[in-house]
Automatic annotation (TrEMBL):
<dbReference type="GO" id="GO:0060070">
    <property type="term" value="P:canonical Wnt signaling pathway"/>
</dbReference>
<protein>
    <recommendedName>
        <fullName>EGF-like domain-containing protein</fullName>
    </recommendedName>
</protein>
<dbReference type="GO" id="GO:0042813">
    <property type="term" value="F:Wnt receptor activity"/>
</dbReference>
<keyword id="KW-0245">EGF-like domain</keyword>
<dbReference type="InterPro" id="IPR050778">
    <property type="entry name" value="Cueball_EGF_LRP_Nidogen"/>
</dbReference>
<dbReference type="InterPro" id="IPR011042">
    <property type="entry name" value="6-blade_b-propeller_TolB-like"/>
</dbReference>
<dbReference type="GO" id="GO:0005886">
    <property type="term" value="C:plasma membrane"/>
</dbReference>
<keyword id="KW-0677">Repeat</keyword>
<dbReference type="GO" id="GO:0017147">
    <property type="term" value="F:Wnt-protein binding"/>
</dbReference>
Length: 163
């Protein structure tokens, strides 16, 4: 009886490895790999985006990524309030007398050039993003009032509720 045996190829080894993204082989041993910005999970097959924690400290926004001990500054010193818009992957922050939008998808590098949403009439002590209605609310220190703007910056509303 004669049996035909298919040769083992790198493609067939990787096909059976179960990698979530990509695979490389060395001596017919598959190794799963991940694209930049992702890490290999404990199962050595699944790529995930590491958790990044944003922190407001010492008048700046910093971040630390899961598994790393280094805390990195993201937004310049002078930031007194911020929130994170998860769906848009943006940091909304009060810095340099403006409420600014910083694009942030988890990379621990300085976010891209920000864009201004609104210029409050006084210092901001805290702010919050309304994800549902696409608004940002802030507390005006001198006016002791809650003010608001659409995230597009088209509609600024002030003097609402006294704090």
């Amino acid at each position: 009886m004669i049996c035909a045996v298919s040769p083992i190829t790198a493609e067939s080894v990787c096909k059976d490895a179960g990698c979530s993204h990509s695979c490389i082989t060395a001596v017919d041993i598959p190794t799963c790999t991940c694209p930049e910005g992702m890490v290999l999970g404990e199962d050595s097959k699944t790529c995930t985006v590491p958790v990044t924690i944003l922190m407001g400290m010492h008048r700046e926004i910093s971040a630390v990524t899961e598994g790393e001990g280094e805390v990195r500054s993201l937004v310049p010193i002078g930031t007194t309030a911020f929130d994170f818009h998860y769906n848009n992957k943006e940091i909304i922050a009060f810095a340099d007398n403006n409420i600014m939008r910083y694009s942030f998808a988890g990379e621990l590098t300085m976010p891209k050039q920000p864009s201004a949403i609104a210029t409050p009439t006084s210092r901001v002590s805290s702010l919050a993003v309304d994800w549902i209605h696409q608004d940002v609310y802030w507390i005006s220190r001198q006016r002791s009032a809650i003010e608001a703007s659409s995230l597009s910056g088209n509609s600024v509303r002030g003097g609402g509720v006294a704090v």
